[in-house]
Design brief:
Blueprint (H helix, E strand, L loop, with lengths): L5 E6 L14 E10 L10 E9 L2 E11 L4 E2 L4 E2 L9 H24 L6 H13 L3 H14 L3 H17 L13 H13 L4 H20 L31 H8 L6 H15 L5 H6 L5 E4 L2 E6 L13 E4 L2 H13 L17 H26 L8 H14 L4 H8 L4 H7 L5 H9 L2
Antiparallel strand pairs: 1-2, 2-3, 3-4, 5-6, 7-8, 8-9
């Protein structure tokens, strides 16, 4: 490839008002990477510059490299491929290639946004891009910070997203934040879709990427000018796919409530499922973290009071208060008498004195085993309509409250949701009984 003079034509046919305006919308700019011989240094070397020419005006942008006259190939605009003359020519030419790509990226942006740019604006954009941090490095820093502050789940989410981005982008380690624009995000989404990645999974990756970009903008590592989300940008909400509601029918729920198991593992599994159900569908991770310190005596009685691990550090998150009913108290007492609890934990999920990432992996391992046992319990009880999982207790609780006319605002509160939209994912649009009544009117 010849890296000498390049002519770049910026042409916008969409903005032409008539054929007669064609020539007025054809802008010619000329770029060269050159050894600037008018500015020779004391050691006889010359600075390497990007020379930009437009409308008879010229600007030299110093690229931070120098060359002796015998090291430079004017015809290619690169260092000569000779280690005897320049041992670092491979590295130096690679850097010049990177600058060439940066220049092309800026010109594409000007063309797409129909900007009548000046040489000063071009230079500002050129160095503005270089001052922005690298996406990969910022991701890694955020992952390390999250681990250090014991946000292991979020750290894993960031790491998974970065891994997937690298799968489709072999230049991810060199990407600068201005390159993560709407075109990049659209291409990433298409690549995921072609790889049979479902909408909800793509939504997960996009939300993580958006979170990283928001952090980068806040820390002045990235600019809003190329932000791919928000108004007019990529709409993450369009990726959401409706999932089948995972809740038990009342007869299946009663079967679990009233069918003690002879096998200890199955009985422990059954009681843990019911504990989650009676505690307003508490998640497995939150259930694992409960200790005696979460039991508080308030004016109206005793409650289990906790904040969801998933969002406990977000601003304005309120505690969930679960009335300590006789049923819940009975389950806690059974765990205390029949399982090897450690420390002050209310449930026997955590069985080792771990912390940090080790604790996170321990809970994940126990979570996988628990779901396998739930599946076996469902088979043992003859529950065929719905496979038992940790989510089923939460969904079933929400649907039970709705069928008993509990307002969705209340259901949202006891589930710890920040808005009703999240709660609505768990609930059918209408109860089937309401639909049945509507059908009678036809």
């Amino acid at each position: 490839m010849n890296y000498g003079t390049k002519l770049v034509y910026l042409y916008h046919p969409k903005v032409l008002k008539s054929v007669g305006q064609t020539l007025n919308n054809l802008v010619m700019a000329k770029f060269n990477i050159v050894a600037y011989k008018s500015n020779q240094k004391r050691d006889g070397s010359y600075p390497i510059c990007l020379r930009a020419t437009k409308e008879g005006k010229r600007k030299y942008i110093d690229l931070g490299l120098t060359t002796q006259e015998n090291q430079w190939d004017e015809s290619t605009g690169r260092f000569k491929r000779d280690k005897r003359l320049n041992p670092t020519y491979v590295r130096d030419n690679s850097l010049l290639n990177h600058y060439e790509e940066r220049k092309d990226s800026i010109l594409r942006k000007f063309a797409e946004e129909r900007i009548d740019w000046t040489l000063n604006l071009f230079e500002e954009q050129f160095w503005g891009m270089s001052k922005q941090g690298k996406v990969y490095d910022f991701f890694i820093t955020q992952i390390e910070n999250l681990k250090a502050t014991n946000h292991i789940g979020n750290a894993k989410a960031y790491a998974r997203t970065l891994h997937v981005m690298g799968k489709y982008d072999d230049k991810i380690e060199e990407r600068l934040f201005p390159e993560i624009d709407i075109k990049y995000v659209n291409a990433f989404n298409v690549a995921l879709e072609k790889d049979k990645c479902g909408g909800n999974t793509r939504k997960y990756y996009m939300k993580t990427l958006r979170a990283v970009l928001n952090k980068a903008i806040k820390e002045k590592e990235a600019s809003l000018s190329t932000y791919p989300f928000g108004k007019g940008g990529f709409e993450i909400s369009t990726l959401e796919e409706e999932t089948r509601k995972r809740y038990l029918l009342s007869e299946d729920l009663n079967l679990i409530k009233n069918s003690p198991q002879q096998n200890f593992t199955m009985e422990y599994t059954r009681r843990l499922f019911l504990f989650s159900y009676y505690c307003f569908g508490i998640s497995y991770v939150d259930m694992a973290s409960l200790t005696t310190h979460n039991i508080e005596k308030l004016e109206t009685g005793e409650y289990i009071v906790y904040k969801r691990q998933k969002i406990k550090n977000q601003k304005g998150v309120k505690s969930i208060k679960i009335p300590l009913t006789d049923t819940i108290r009975g389950l806690i007492e059974w765990f205390g008498k029949n399982t090897p609890l450690i420390g002050d934990y209310l449930t026997p999920i955590i069985t080792r004195d771990y912390s940090g990432e080790q604790l996170y992996e321990h809970i994940r391992s126990r979570y996988g085993r628990y779901n396998k046992n739930l599946k076996k319990l469902g088979v043992a009880l003859g529950i065929e309509r719905q496979k038992l999982t940790t989510y089923v207790s939460r969904h079933t609780m929400a649907m039970t409250l709705q069928s008993n006319k509990v307002p969705r605002e209340v259901i949202s509160q006891v589930m710890g949701h920040s808005n009703l939209e999240t709660t609505n994912v768990y609930l059918d649009s209408f109860e089937t009984s309401v639909v049945d009544e509507a059908a009678k009117l036809l």
